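Hello support,

Our group uses your service weekly, and this is the first time we've seen a run hang past the timeout. The protein is Glycosyltransferase family 2 protein. I'm not sure whether the cause is the sequence or the server load. Input pasted verbatim:
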Amino acid sequence: MPRPAGRCAGTRTLPCGFCGSRRAEERVRSCQPAGGGRDAMTAALVFVVAVCTIGVSTLVWGTVAVARLLAERRTSPRLLSPSMYFRPAEVAILIAAHDEELVIADAVAAARALVPGQNVFVVSDGSHDATVERARDAGATAWDLSPNRGKAGAIRAGLQRFRIPERFPLLLLLDADSRPRRDYLRTGLPLFTDPSVVAVAGRATTAADVPATRGGRLLTSYRERTYICTQYLHKFGQAARSADAVAIVPGFASLYRTDVLDRIDIDAPGLSIEDFNMTFEVHAKRLGRIAFHPDCAIAETQDPAVFRDYSAQMRRWSLGFWQTVRRHGIRPGLFWTSVGVFATETVVASLVLAAVVPLLLLAALAAIASRVLSGPAADVAEAVAAALPAVPFLVGLLFVDTMMTVFFCAVAPRRPHPTMVLFPLLRVWDAVLCLRALLAALGRPSDGRWKSPDRRSVAQIARADDHDGVETAAFSRRSGSGRGRTVEVGHELSA
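Update from on-call engineer: The timeout came from a worker crash unrelated to the input. Re-ran successfully.
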């Protein structure tokens, strides 16, 4: 006689989902899926975790980026005459710096390689070192601003002090640790031939100097992967003419038309960084379009090589994003929809990533307890270990992270390195910092005052070992200025 529906169909020895133990026996209901059904559910969970951690935005904007790339290759470029775009002499470079004596001279030298020396301005924002003196010695017009107002306040004060909007049609905002490549303006200025473009977002890449420590090399390599993935898979698609949804014009090395700066609330109160807010202001006030191309306006930046500084910078960036989203809110339009989707999936992805390590630890402890204990306690521990979806979470995370690393190595290009297996841990840490920053953004506002990370002087870089020197030289050859190109206006306007 058949059993009624929903009654127990017998007993079965179930493997532990974490350690594979087949010790515990429990009754399995007939309505539970068979082995194939459980495999399908596991695969579905892996897929969900993978989508949550990579984000819908990455898939959408990555597709748009591919479409834009194909459109550019099909379009015949229009020839540009020199009179159709700005000249370097019409560009002012403003560097806001705080305690940057180790790197400010190199920043000024890099700036003077792009524009005449009288176009380079430095605002030392309450520095306690020799930032002002070294900037002046390097040939810049420097001003010692006191007290410390924060980067945004220093930029606003510098614009007024040096009367930059009255004297120059374009402004390049440059960080003290940034080094624009020699073709930065040659590739970036043609993007302004479109009169609707009010800003050109610079493309960030990690400086070619290799930190002396393994930990520093791990951090900078991971940061370069972040740059590659976000700029190629997000920003390139967002900058398509039909989209105009670029979420950030990074303040490390980007260009603005000066005639829109008076309509941008640069030093808005309560924000830890200025670049997210300046970008949102461009969209909110419909000032114009933001252009970006990964082959144009490239600048190298010296990323933190110390974990403490890396964490502080990541928290500051995340805090600035959440504060800006809170300040502007979500409005009608493609850009604001994109921001809303990205903010939502960032929270979801951060929660998933932050849960991975505790989930693995709990599953491991439960599996160990099931082997050590006996009786009902062991059965409970075995059931807990079997119920936790530790393996699908881990597989989903590692799959996405591996794909990101493969993409990074293909685009950079970089050879795979054993330390790259630690990238998932850094991504989990980023998620924790992001969630903490979200909570902080809901609390008291920031004043925007800064503390620069530890810088690497030329002397410190020279003390790196011989192996690092070889790697640095190889990277310099791969990422030299020869890779940049001038984007003809026909390519840019067609996308």
